Amino acid sequence: MTLAYVAELDSGLVARIRAGEEEAYAQLFRRYYRELCVYASRIDRAGGSAEEIVQEVFFRIWMHRERLLLTESLTGYLYAVTRNVSLNRLARSQTEDRWRAEAQVEALEPPGEAGSADVAVRETEMAIAIDRAIAKLPPRCREAFLLRRQRHMSYLEIAQAMQTSPKTVEIQIGKALRLLRASLAEWL
Amino acid sequence: MSAEPDWSLVDRYLSGECTPSEAKAIDEWIAADSSHAQLIASMRLVWTEVATPLPQVDEKAAWLALQTRRAEARQQSRSTLATAPSFRMSEPRRAPWLWPALAAGLVLAAGAAGWWKHTEDLRLAAEAAPPREYITARGQRAEVTLIDGTRVWLSTDSRLQVPQSYGATTRDVTLNGEGYFVVQHDDDRPFRVHAGASVSEDLGTEFDVRAYPGDSEAVVIVASGRVALRAAAAPNVRSTATELGRGQMGRLAQSGDVRVVDGVDFADALAWRSGHLSFDERPLRDVARELERWYDIDIALDDSALASAPLTASFTNQSADQALAIIAGALGTHYSRDGRTVHFTMTHP
Protein backbone atom coordinates (compact mmCIF):
# COMPACT_ATOMS: atom_id res chain seq x y z
CA MET A 1 0.00 0.00 0.00
CA THR A 2 1.38 3.39 -0.91
CA LEU A 3 1.39 6.23 1.58
CA ALA A 4 -0.99 8.28 -0.51
CA TYR A 5 -3.46 5.44 -0.54
CA VAL A 6 -3.26 5.07 3.23
CA ALA A 7 -3.82 8.80 3.67
CA GLU A 8 -6.85 8.70 1.42
CA LEU A 9 -8.30 5.73 3.30
CA ASP A 10 -7.68 7.56 6.56
CA SER A 11 -9.34 10.79 5.57
CA GLY A 12 -12.39 8.84 4.41
CA LEU A 13 -12.44 7.04 7.73
CA VAL A 14 -12.08 10.27 9.68
CA ALA A 15 -14.98 11.85 7.82
CA ARG A 16 -17.18 8.86 8.58
CA ILE A 17 -16.20 8.82 12.24
CA ARG A 18 -16.92 12.54 12.49
CA ALA A 19 -20.37 11.77 11.14
CA GLY A 20 -20.81 9.30 13.98
CA GLU A 21 -20.70 6.19 11.84
CA GLU A 22 -20.39 3.18 14.05
CA GLU A 23 -18.76 0.86 11.53
CA ALA A 24 -16.03 3.39 10.76
CA TYR A 25 -15.24 3.69 14.44
CA ALA A 26 -15.08 -0.08 14.77
CA GLN A 27 -12.72 -0.22 11.80
CA LEU A 28 -10.45 2.31 13.45
CA PHE A 29 -10.48 0.22 16.59
CA ARG A 30 -9.64 -2.98 14.77
CA ARG A 31 -6.85 -1.37 12.85
CA TYR A 32 -5.13 0.44 15.70
CA TYR A 33 -6.03 -1.08 19.04
CA ARG A 34 -3.28 -3.71 19.25
CA GLU A 35 -0.64 -1.43 17.83
CA LEU A 36 -1.42 1.40 20.22
CA CYS A 37 -1.33 -1.05 23.15
CA VAL A 38 2.22 -1.95 22.14
CA TYR A 39 3.13 1.71 21.98
CA ALA A 40 1.52 2.49 25.34
CA SER A 41 3.33 -0.44 26.94
CA ARG A 42 6.64 0.95 25.68
CA ILE A 43 5.98 4.33 27.28
CA ASP A 44 4.94 2.88 30.60
CA ARG A 45 7.08 -0.23 30.74
CA ALA A 46 6.34 -1.08 34.35
CA GLY A 47 2.75 0.08 34.51
CA GLY A 48 0.98 -2.75 32.77
CA SER A 49 -2.03 -0.53 32.05
CA ALA A 50 -1.56 -0.30 28.28
CA GLU A 51 -5.04 -1.60 27.52
CA GLU A 52 -6.69 0.84 29.91
CA ILE A 53 -4.78 3.69 28.35
CA VAL A 54 -5.72 2.76 24.81
CA GLN A 55 -9.38 2.25 25.71
CA GLU A 56 -9.31 5.73 27.19
CA VAL A 57 -7.82 6.98 23.92
CA PHE A 58 -10.60 5.39 21.87
CA PHE A 59 -13.24 6.67 24.25
CA ARG A 60 -11.94 10.22 23.92
CA ILE A 61 -11.70 9.91 20.16
CA TRP A 62 -15.39 9.04 20.07
CA MET A 63 -16.50 11.68 22.55
CA HIS A 64 -14.58 14.38 20.70
CA ARG A 65 -14.93 12.98 17.20
CA GLU A 66 -15.98 16.31 15.76
CA ARG A 67 -12.53 17.61 16.68
CA LEU A 68 -10.80 15.13 14.39
CA LEU A 69 -9.13 16.89 11.50
CA LEU A 70 -9.36 15.58 7.99
CA THR A 71 -6.00 17.01 7.02
CA GLU A 72 -3.94 15.47 9.77
CA SER A 73 -2.22 12.10 9.69
CA LEU A 74 -4.57 9.79 11.51
CA THR A 75 -1.77 7.51 12.64
CA GLY A 76 0.28 10.39 13.98
CA TYR A 77 -2.73 11.77 15.77
CA LEU A 78 -3.61 8.47 17.46
CA TYR A 79 -0.03 8.03 18.61
CA ALA A 80 0.07 11.54 19.98
CA VAL A 81 -3.13 11.08 21.95
CA THR A 82 -1.91 7.73 23.26
CA ARG A 83 1.33 9.33 24.31
CA ASN A 84 -0.44 12.15 26.12
CA VAL A 85 -2.83 9.87 27.94
CA SER A 86 0.09 7.63 28.96
CA LEU A 87 2.12 10.54 30.23
CA ASN A 88 -0.83 11.95 32.14
CA ARG A 89 -1.18 8.60 33.86
CA LEU A 90 2.50 8.45 34.65
CA ALA A 91 2.38 11.96 36.05
CA ARG A 92 -0.31 10.88 38.42
CA SER A 93 1.79 8.04 39.77
CA GLN A 94 5.24 9.62 39.61
CA THR A 95 6.63 12.81 41.03
CA GLU A 96 9.49 13.53 38.66
CA ASP A 97 9.45 17.04 37.30
CA ARG A 98 10.15 15.97 33.77
CA TRP A 99 6.88 14.06 33.68
CA ARG A 100 5.02 16.88 35.38
CA ALA A 101 5.89 19.25 32.59
CA GLU A 102 4.46 16.86 30.05
CA ALA A 103 1.38 16.20 32.12
CA GLN A 104 0.14 19.67 31.34
CA VAL A 105 -0.48 18.62 27.77
CA GLU A 106 -4.19 18.38 27.21
CA ALA A 107 -4.76 14.88 26.04
CA LEU A 108 -6.36 15.74 22.72
CA GLU A 109 -3.93 18.34 21.51
CA PRO A 110 -1.99 17.51 18.39
CA PRO A 111 1.62 16.39 18.90
CA GLY A 112 3.97 19.11 20.12
CA GLU A 113 7.16 18.20 18.35
CA ALA A 114 6.86 17.44 14.68
CA GLY A 115 8.25 14.04 13.79
CA SER A 116 8.18 12.59 17.29
CA ALA A 117 5.14 10.57 16.36
CA ASP A 118 6.92 9.18 13.31
CA VAL A 119 9.71 7.81 15.46
CA ALA A 120 7.19 6.32 17.85
CA VAL A 121 5.25 4.74 15.00
CA ARG A 122 8.41 3.22 13.57
CA GLU A 123 9.57 1.86 16.92
CA THR A 124 6.18 0.38 17.63
CA GLU A 125 5.93 -1.19 14.24
CA MET A 126 9.35 -2.65 14.72
CA ALA A 127 8.44 -4.06 18.10
CA ILE A 128 5.49 -5.75 16.44
CA ALA A 129 7.69 -6.99 13.59
CA ILE A 130 10.18 -8.43 16.09
CA ASP A 131 7.36 -10.16 17.91
CA ARG A 132 6.19 -11.72 14.65
CA ALA A 133 9.73 -12.76 13.72
CA ILE A 134 10.15 -14.50 17.06
CA ALA A 135 6.85 -16.28 16.59
CA LYS A 136 8.16 -17.65 13.30
CA LEU A 137 11.28 -19.22 14.86
CA PRO A 138 11.39 -23.03 15.10
CA PRO A 139 9.87 -23.99 18.48
CA ARG A 140 12.97 -25.20 20.32
CA CYS A 141 15.05 -22.43 18.89
CA ARG A 142 12.46 -19.90 20.10
CA GLU A 143 12.23 -21.45 23.52
CA ALA A 144 15.98 -21.34 24.05
CA PHE A 145 16.19 -17.78 22.81
CA LEU A 146 13.39 -16.49 25.07
CA LEU A 147 14.80 -18.21 28.15
CA ARG A 148 18.10 -16.59 27.36
CA ARG A 149 16.76 -13.14 26.75
CA GLN A 150 13.71 -12.81 28.96
CA ARG A 151 14.85 -14.97 31.88
CA HIS A 152 18.55 -14.14 31.52
CA MET A 153 19.55 -17.80 31.87
CA SER A 154 22.98 -19.26 31.07
CA TYR A 155 23.53 -21.94 28.41
CA LEU A 156 23.83 -24.51 31.21
CA GLU A 157 20.58 -23.46 32.89
CA ILE A 158 18.71 -23.51 29.58
CA ALA A 159 20.19 -26.93 28.76
CA GLN A 160 18.85 -28.27 32.05
CA ALA A 161 15.46 -26.72 31.51
CA MET A 162 15.19 -28.08 27.98
CA GLN A 163 16.88 -31.39 28.75
CA THR A 164 19.59 -31.00 26.17
CA SER A 165 23.29 -30.13 26.04
CA PRO A 166 24.78 -26.65 26.52
CA LYS A 167 26.38 -26.93 23.11
CA THR A 168 22.99 -27.50 21.47
CA VAL A 169 21.63 -24.48 23.33
CA GLU A 170 24.47 -22.34 22.07
CA ILE A 171 23.78 -23.46 18.50
CA GLN A 172 20.01 -22.91 18.85
CA ILE A 173 20.51 -19.38 20.12
CA GLY A 174 23.01 -18.53 17.41
CA LYS A 175 20.51 -19.83 14.89
CA ALA A 176 17.76 -17.71 16.48
CA LEU A 177 19.81 -14.54 16.04
CA ARG A 178 20.66 -15.40 12.45
CA LEU A 179 17.02 -16.08 11.56
CA LEU A 180 15.82 -12.91 13.31
CA ARG A 181 18.35 -10.84 11.46
CA ALA A 182 17.15 -12.38 8.18
CA SER A 183 13.44 -11.83 8.76
CA LEU A 184 14.00 -8.30 10.06
CA ALA A 185 16.21 -7.33 7.13
CA GLU A 186 13.94 -4.49 6.05
CA TRP A 187 14.10 -2.93 9.53
CA LEU A 188 17.76 -3.32 10.31
CA MET B 1 35.24 -13.75 10.80
CA SER B 2 33.62 -12.89 7.51
CA ALA B 3 30.54 -10.78 6.66
CA GLU B 4 28.41 -13.32 8.46
CA PRO B 5 29.35 -13.16 12.15
CA ASP B 6 29.61 -16.03 14.58
CA TRP B 7 26.08 -15.65 15.97
CA SER B 8 26.75 -17.50 19.20
CA LEU B 9 29.55 -15.09 19.79
CA VAL B 10 27.24 -12.16 19.09
CA ASP B 11 24.86 -13.59 21.68
CA ARG B 12 27.57 -13.80 24.32
CA TYR B 13 28.79 -10.34 23.38
CA LEU B 14 25.34 -8.77 23.80
CA SER B 15 24.83 -10.71 27.03
CA GLY B 16 28.18 -9.50 28.37
CA GLU B 17 29.49 -13.05 28.74
CA CYS B 18 32.46 -12.97 26.39
CA THR B 19 35.88 -14.18 27.47
CA PRO B 20 38.60 -11.53 26.93
CA SER B 21 39.79 -13.25 23.75
CA GLU B 22 36.22 -13.48 22.39
CA ALA B 23 35.66 -9.79 23.10
CA LYS B 24 38.84 -8.93 21.27
CA ALA B 25 37.80 -11.03 18.27
CA ILE B 26 34.41 -9.38 17.94
CA ASP B 27 35.78 -5.87 18.46
CA GLU B 28 38.15 -6.51 15.59
CA TRP B 29 35.31 -7.81 13.43
CA ILE B 30 33.22 -4.68 14.19
CA ALA B 31 36.14 -2.40 13.32
CA ALA B 32 36.76 -4.19 10.02
CA ASP B 33 33.67 -2.79 8.26
CA SER B 34 31.09 -0.09 9.03
CA SER B 35 28.30 -2.49 8.03
CA HIS B 36 29.47 -4.82 10.83
CA ALA B 37 29.06 -2.05 13.38
CA GLN B 38 25.62 -1.36 12.04
CA LEU B 39 24.61 -5.00 12.31
CA ILE B 40 25.71 -5.20 15.93
CA ALA B 41 23.84 -1.98 16.72
CA SER B 42 20.63 -3.24 15.21
CA MET B 43 20.95 -6.63 16.90
CA ARG B 44 21.37 -4.77 20.18
CA LEU B 45 18.07 -3.06 19.41
CA VAL B 46 16.38 -6.41 18.85
CA TRP B 47 18.03 -7.62 22.03
CA THR B 48 16.46 -4.77 24.03
CA GLU B 49 13.06 -5.13 22.43
CA VAL B 50 12.84 -8.84 23.11
CA ALA B 51 13.39 -8.22 26.80
CA THR B 52 10.10 -6.27 26.83
CA PRO B 53 7.39 -8.69 25.81
CA LEU B 54 4.41 -7.30 23.93
CA PRO B 55 1.38 -6.73 26.13
CA GLN B 56 -1.26 -9.43 26.10
CA VAL B 57 -4.21 -7.79 24.40
CA ASP B 58 -7.83 -8.93 24.48
CA GLU B 59 -9.36 -6.99 21.63
CA LYS B 60 -12.86 -8.34 21.96
CA ALA B 61 -13.13 -7.68 25.68
CA ALA B 62 -11.73 -4.19 25.11
CA TRP B 63 -14.30 -3.43 22.44
CA LEU B 64 -17.17 -4.57 24.65
CA ALA B 65 -15.85 -2.49 27.53
CA LEU B 66 -15.64 0.48 25.20
CA GLN B 67 -19.18 -0.08 23.92
CA THR B 68 -20.48 -0.13 27.47
CA ARG B 69 -18.63 3.02 28.38
CA ARG B 70 -19.94 4.87 25.32
CA ALA B 71 -23.47 3.70 26.01
CA GLU B 72 -23.21 5.04 29.56
CA ALA B 73 -21.89 8.35 28.33
CA ARG B 74 -24.72 8.55 25.82
CA GLN B 75 -27.24 7.81 28.54
CA GLN B 76 -25.79 10.55 30.72
CA SER B 77 -25.84 13.16 28.00
CA ARG B 78 -29.39 12.18 27.11
CA SER B 79 -30.60 12.75 30.61
CA THR B 80 -29.11 16.23 30.70
CA LEU B 81 -30.79 17.34 27.48
CA ALA B 82 -33.60 19.79 27.83
CA THR B 83 -35.63 17.70 25.44
CA ALA B 84 -34.98 14.52 27.34
CA PRO B 85 -38.01 12.29 27.73
CA SER B 86 -40.02 13.17 30.77
CA PHE B 87 -41.58 10.62 32.96
CA ARG B 88 -44.45 11.01 35.35
CA MET B 89 -45.93 8.34 37.50
CA SER B 90 -49.48 7.94 38.58
CA GLU B 91 -50.05 7.58 42.29
CA PRO B 92 -48.69 4.18 43.07
CA ARG B 93 -50.98 2.04 45.15
CA ARG B 94 -48.18 -0.23 46.14
CA ALA B 95 -44.61 -1.14 45.33
CA PRO B 96 -43.45 2.21 43.98
CA TRP B 97 -40.72 0.91 41.77
CA LEU B 98 -40.42 2.12 38.29
CA TRP B 99 -37.20 2.43 36.45
CA PRO B 100 -35.95 3.73 33.18
CA ALA B 101 -33.54 0.86 33.26
CA LEU B 102 -30.01 1.70 32.26
CA ALA B 103 -29.34 -1.84 31.25
CA ALA B 104 -25.74 -1.31 30.20
CA GLY B 105 -25.19 -4.99 30.65
CA LEU B 106 -27.45 -5.48 27.69
CA VAL B 107 -24.72 -4.30 25.38
CA LEU B 108 -22.58 -7.15 26.58
CA ALA B 109 -25.35 -9.68 26.27
CA ALA B 110 -26.31 -8.55 22.80
CA GLY B 111 -22.77 -7.92 21.64
CA ALA B 112 -21.04 -11.05 22.83
CA ALA B 113 -22.67 -13.43 20.39
CA GLY B 114 -20.27 -13.84 17.49
CA TRP B 115 -19.68 -10.16 17.25
CA TRP B 116 -16.18 -9.93 15.92
CA LYS B 117 -16.74 -11.65 12.61
CA HIS B 118 -18.86 -9.26 10.75
CA THR B 119 -19.83 -5.73 9.95
CA GLU B 120 -23.44 -6.72 10.30
CA ASP B 121 -22.80 -7.83 13.83
CA LEU B 122 -21.28 -4.46 14.53
CA ARG B 123 -24.30 -2.64 13.30
CA LEU B 124 -26.49 -4.85 15.44
CA ALA B 125 -24.29 -4.23 18.45
CA ALA B 126 -24.76 -0.52 17.92
CA GLU B 127 -28.49 -0.94 17.68
CA ALA B 128 -28.42 -3.06 20.77
CA ALA B 129 -27.18 -0.11 22.80
CA PRO B 130 -29.42 -0.28 25.80
CA PRO B 131 -32.98 0.76 25.09
CA ARG B 132 -34.78 2.96 27.51
CA GLU B 133 -37.31 0.93 29.40
CA TYR B 134 -40.37 2.21 31.13
CA ILE B 135 -41.94 -0.30 33.41
CA THR B 136 -45.08 -0.14 35.48
CA ALA B 137 -45.63 -2.55 38.32
CA ARG B 138 -49.01 -3.95 39.07
CA GLY B 139 -51.18 -1.23 40.51
CA GLN B 140 -49.23 1.47 38.70
CA ARG B 141 -49.81 3.51 35.62
CA ALA B 142 -47.45 6.00 34.05
CA GLU B 143 -47.28 8.72 31.47
CA VAL B 144 -44.23 9.08 29.27
CA THR B 145 -43.35 11.85 26.84
CA LEU B 146 -40.86 10.70 24.24
CA ILE B 147 -38.20 12.91 22.72
CA ASP B 148 -40.35 13.75 19.66
CA GLY B 149 -43.30 14.84 21.76
CA THR B 150 -45.19 11.60 21.33
CA ARG B 151 -47.01 10.77 24.54
CA VAL B 152 -47.61 7.33 25.93
CA TRP B 153 -49.84 6.31 28.79
CA LEU B 154 -48.70 2.97 30.18
CA SER B 155 -51.25 0.80 31.86
CA THR B 156 -50.51 -1.44 34.82
CA ASP B 157 -47.90 -4.19 34.70
CA SER B 158 -46.60 -3.04 31.33
CA ARG B 159 -43.27 -2.38 29.73
CA LEU B 160 -42.35 0.02 26.95
CA GLN B 161 -38.95 -0.22 25.28
CA VAL B 162 -37.61 2.73 23.35
CA PRO B 163 -34.34 2.02 21.49
CA GLN B 164 -31.46 4.47 21.54
CA SER B 165 -31.92 4.93 17.82
CA TYR B 166 -35.51 6.11 18.33
CA GLY B 167 -36.21 9.07 16.07
CA ALA B 168 -33.05 8.80 13.97
CA THR B 169 -34.77 7.40 10.89
CA THR B 170 -37.60 5.39 12.37
CA ARG B 171 -39.59 5.39 15.55
CA ASP B 172 -40.10 1.81 16.65
CA VAL B 173 -41.13 0.98 20.17
CA THR B 174 -41.92 -2.35 21.77
CA LEU B 175 -44.80 -2.82 24.13
CA ASN B 176 -45.59 -5.59 26.57
CA GLY B 177 -48.95 -4.91 28.17
CA GLU B 178 -51.16 -1.98 27.33
CA GLY B 179 -50.45 1.55 26.25
CA TYR B 180 -52.26 4.50 24.77
CA PHE B 181 -50.34 6.47 22.16
CA VAL B 182 -50.81 10.07 21.08
CA VAL B 183 -48.36 10.30 18.21
CA GLN B 184 -46.70 13.34 16.71
CA HIS B 185 -47.16 12.25 13.15
CA ASP B 186 -44.20 12.40 10.78
CA ASP B 187 -44.39 10.94 7.27
CA ASP B 188 -40.62 10.57 7.09
CA ARG B 189 -40.20 8.78 10.35
CA PRO B 190 -43.00 6.29 10.83
CA PHE B 191 -44.06 5.54 14.37
CA ARG B 192 -44.64 1.84 15.00
CA VAL B 193 -45.66 -0.13 18.04
CA HIS B 194 -44.49 -3.73 18.15
CA ALA B 195 -46.69 -5.69 20.52
CA GLY B 196 -47.06 -9.44 20.64
CA ALA B 197 -47.60 -10.66 17.10
CA SER B 198 -48.68 -7.23 15.89
CA VAL B 199 -47.22 -4.07 14.47
CA SER B 200 -49.31 -0.89 14.51
CA GLU B 201 -48.14 2.00 12.40
CA ASP B 202 -49.35 5.50 13.05
CA LEU B 203 -51.07 7.29 10.19
CA GLY B 204 -51.83 10.39 12.25
CA THR B 205 -53.40 9.11 15.38
CA GLU B 206 -54.34 8.39 18.92
CA PHE B 207 -54.66 4.72 19.60
CA ASP B 208 -54.53 2.04 22.24
CA VAL B 209 -52.47 -1.15 21.92
CA ARG B 210 -52.89 -4.05 24.22
CA ALA B 211 -50.89 -7.29 24.20
CA TYR B 212 -50.02 -8.76 27.56
CA PRO B 213 -47.89 -11.88 27.68
CA GLY B 214 -50.28 -14.82 27.44
CA ASP B 215 -52.95 -12.87 25.57
CA SER B 216 -54.24 -14.80 22.58
CA GLU B 217 -54.51 -11.67 20.50
CA ALA B 218 -53.24 -8.12 20.21
CA VAL B 219 -56.00 -5.51 20.39
CA VAL B 220 -55.73 -2.07 18.81
CA ILE B 221 -58.40 0.58 19.32
CA VAL B 222 -58.28 3.85 17.38
CA ALA B 223 -59.54 6.95 19.15
CA SER B 224 -58.62 9.38 16.41
CA GLY B 225 -57.00 9.29 12.98
CA ARG B 226 -55.91 6.02 11.41
CA VAL B 227 -53.60 3.10 12.17
CA ALA B 228 -52.13 0.45 9.90
CA LEU B 229 -52.20 -2.88 11.71
CA ARG B 230 -50.28 -5.86 10.45
CA ALA B 231 -48.74 -9.08 11.72
CA ALA B 232 -45.15 -8.77 12.95
CA ALA B 233 -44.22 -11.65 10.64
CA ALA B 234 -45.65 -9.95 7.53
CA PRO B 235 -43.51 -7.85 5.19
CA ASN B 236 -43.59 -4.17 5.95
CA VAL B 237 -45.66 -3.04 2.98
CA ARG B 238 -48.98 -1.36 2.83
CA SER B 239 -50.75 -4.31 1.18
CA THR B 240 -50.21 -6.52 4.24
CA ALA B 241 -51.75 -4.00 6.61
CA THR B 242 -55.32 -3.49 7.72
CA GLU B 243 -56.24 0.15 8.11
CA LEU B 244 -58.28 1.03 11.14
CA GLY B 245 -60.20 4.27 11.52
CA ARG B 246 -61.68 6.14 14.44
CA GLY B 247 -63.88 3.94 16.62
CA GLN B 248 -62.59 0.74 15.09
CA MET B 249 -60.97 -2.08 16.98
CA GLY B 250 -58.54 -4.48 15.31
CA ARG B 251 -57.95 -7.86 16.90
CA LEU B 252 -54.86 -9.58 15.57
CA ALA B 253 -54.63 -13.28 16.40
CA GLN B 254 -51.35 -15.19 16.75
CA SER B 255 -52.01 -16.56 13.26
CA GLY B 256 -51.84 -13.02 11.90
CA ASP B 257 -55.55 -12.87 11.04
CA VAL B 258 -57.18 -9.54 11.76
CA ARG B 259 -60.78 -9.06 12.76
CA VAL B 260 -62.18 -5.55 12.70
CA VAL B 261 -64.93 -4.44 15.06
CA ASP B 262 -66.78 -1.20 14.29
CA GLY B 263 -68.39 1.28 16.59
CA VAL B 264 -66.28 0.60 19.66
CA ASP B 265 -67.15 2.70 22.67
CA PHE B 266 -63.60 3.78 23.08
CA ALA B 267 -64.33 6.08 25.95
CA ASP B 268 -65.22 2.93 27.82
CA ALA B 269 -62.44 0.81 26.39
CA LEU B 270 -59.87 3.46 27.23
CA ALA B 271 -61.25 4.21 30.66
CA TRP B 272 -58.14 2.76 32.26
CA ARG B 273 -56.29 5.93 31.37
CA SER B 274 -58.30 7.96 33.81
CA GLY B 275 -58.28 5.32 36.49
CA HIS B 276 -61.48 3.54 35.58
CA LEU B 277 -61.87 -0.14 35.12
CA SER B 278 -64.74 -1.07 32.90
CA PHE B 279 -66.04 -4.49 31.87
CA ASP B 280 -68.83 -5.30 29.49
CA GLU B 281 -69.92 -8.92 29.52
CA ARG B 282 -66.38 -10.13 30.08
CA PRO B 283 -65.68 -13.57 31.57
CA LEU B 284 -64.51 -13.45 35.17
CA ARG B 285 -61.22 -15.04 34.13
CA ASP B 286 -60.38 -11.93 32.04
CA VAL B 287 -61.67 -9.59 34.69
CA ALA B 288 -59.57 -11.36 37.32
CA ARG B 289 -56.45 -10.95 35.24
CA GLU B 290 -57.15 -7.25 34.94
CA LEU B 291 -57.80 -6.85 38.64
CA GLU B 292 -54.55 -8.64 39.40
CA ARG B 293 -52.68 -6.00 37.46
CA TRP B 294 -54.73 -3.18 38.80
CA TYR B 295 -54.60 -4.02 42.47
CA ASP B 296 -51.45 -6.14 42.59
CA ILE B 297 -53.27 -9.17 43.88
CA ASP B 298 -53.44 -12.82 42.80
CA ILE B 299 -56.85 -14.28 42.15
CA ALA B 300 -57.51 -18.00 42.16
CA LEU B 301 -60.58 -19.25 40.31
CA ASP B 302 -60.91 -22.89 41.15
CA ASP B 303 -64.25 -23.41 39.46
CA SER B 304 -64.28 -23.35 35.65
CA ALA B 305 -67.95 -22.42 35.43
CA LEU B 306 -67.22 -19.46 37.66
CA ALA B 307 -64.21 -18.51 35.57
CA SER B 308 -66.45 -18.28 32.50
CA ALA B 309 -69.22 -16.32 34.18
CA PRO B 310 -69.75 -13.01 32.34
CA LEU B 311 -69.48 -9.81 34.27
CA THR B 312 -70.48 -6.24 33.57
CA ALA B 313 -69.09 -3.73 36.04
CA SER B 314 -67.10 -0.56 36.33
CA PHE B 315 -64.82 0.65 39.05
CA THR B 316 -63.37 4.04 39.68
CA ASN B 317 -61.94 4.65 43.09
CA GLN B 318 -62.86 1.47 44.85
CA SER B 319 -60.34 -0.34 46.99
CA ALA B 320 -59.46 -3.90 46.08
CA ASP B 321 -61.83 -5.22 48.76
CA GLN B 322 -64.68 -3.02 47.59
CA ALA B 323 -64.19 -4.15 43.99
CA LEU B 324 -63.98 -7.80 45.01
CA ALA B 325 -67.12 -7.47 47.10
CA ILE B 326 -69.03 -5.92 44.18
CA ILE B 327 -67.97 -8.77 41.90
CA ALA B 328 -68.81 -11.43 44.46
CA GLY B 329 -72.21 -9.79 44.93
CA ALA B 330 -72.89 -9.60 41.18
CA LEU B 331 -71.99 -13.24 40.62
CA GLY B 332 -73.46 -14.61 43.80
CA THR B 333 -70.18 -15.96 45.09
CA HIS B 334 -67.91 -15.46 48.05
CA TYR B 335 -64.33 -14.42 48.14
CA SER B 336 -61.69 -14.69 50.82
CA ARG B 337 -58.47 -12.74 50.90
CA ASP B 338 -55.23 -13.73 52.59
CA GLY B 339 -52.77 -10.90 52.12
CA ARG B 340 -52.41 -10.57 48.35
CA THR B 341 -54.04 -13.89 47.49
CA VAL B 342 -57.74 -13.98 46.75
CA HIS B 343 -59.95 -17.03 46.40
CA PHE B 344 -63.36 -16.95 44.78
CA THR B 345 -65.62 -19.82 45.73
CA MET B 346 -69.08 -20.79 44.60
CA THR B 347 -71.71 -20.34 47.24
CA HIS B 348 -72.99 -23.71 48.28
CA PRO B 349 -76.50 -24.04 49.49
Structure description:
The complex is a heterodimer of chains A (188) and B (349). By secondary structure, chain A is mainly α. In chain A, 73% of the residues lie in helices and 0% in strands. Chain A has helices spanning 3-18, 22-43, 50-63, 74-93, 97-103, 116-135, 139-150, 155-162, 166-183. In chain A, helix 2 (22-43) runs antiparallel to helix 3 (50-63) and helix 3 crosses helix 4. The longest helix of chain A has 22 residues, at 22-43. Chain A is elongated. The two termini of chain A are 21 Å apart. The model of chain A is unreliable at 1-6 and 95-115 (pLDDT under 50). In chain B, a hairpin with a 5-residue loop joins strand 9 (206-211) and strand 10. Residues 79-128 of chain B have low confidence and may be disordered. In chain B, 33% of the residues are buried. Chain B starts with 6 loop residues before the first helix and ends with a strand. In chain B, the strands form three sheets. In chain B, strands 1, 2, 3, 4, 5, 6, 7, 8, 9, 10, 11, 12, 13 and 14 form a 14-stranded mixed β-sheet that branches. Chain B has a three-stranded mixed β-sheet with strand order 16-19-18. In chain B, 32% of the residues lie in helices and 29% in strands. Chain B has 349 residues and is of the alpha+beta class. At the A-B interface, helix 2, helix 3, helix 6, helix 7 and helix 9 of A face helix 1, helix 3, helix 4 and helix 6 of B.
